[in-house]
Predict the 3D structure of the following.
Amino acid sequence: MELTELTVGMLGTQCYVLSAPESDTCVVIDPGAEPERIRKAAGSRRIEAILLTHGHFDHIGGVTPLMQEGIALVIHRLDAPMLQNSELNAGLELTGRNVTAPCATRLVGDGDTLTYAGLDLRVV
C-alpha cells in the first residue's frame, strides 16, 4: 500500500491518500481542507473514493472541491446527517461558517468491507 499523510486546515486534521502500488486510482480519507494540496498528493492517480471517518467540519471541509462525477463519497450511516448540517458538524459553533458537503453516495456500518483503489478496507 502507498500512503501519503497530510496535515490540513486550521485544526491540523490528518488527511490520507491511499492506493495499491499498481493502481492508477487512490482513496482520500478525511479531506478537511486544502483540496489543492490533496490533489497534488494524489499525483497522476484519479480519486476513486473519499472516505470520511466521521462528519465533523474539520474532516469534510475539502470534500466539495474534490468531488467529481464517479467519485464515491463514503461515511458511516450514523454520521451522514452531519454532511449537510453545520450545527451537527460543529462548523457554525466553532468557526461561525456554514461547512457542508454533498450527500454521501455510500453509507456503511461496522464490519462492512470496501474495495477502492486496489485495496480492501474494513469499517471498524
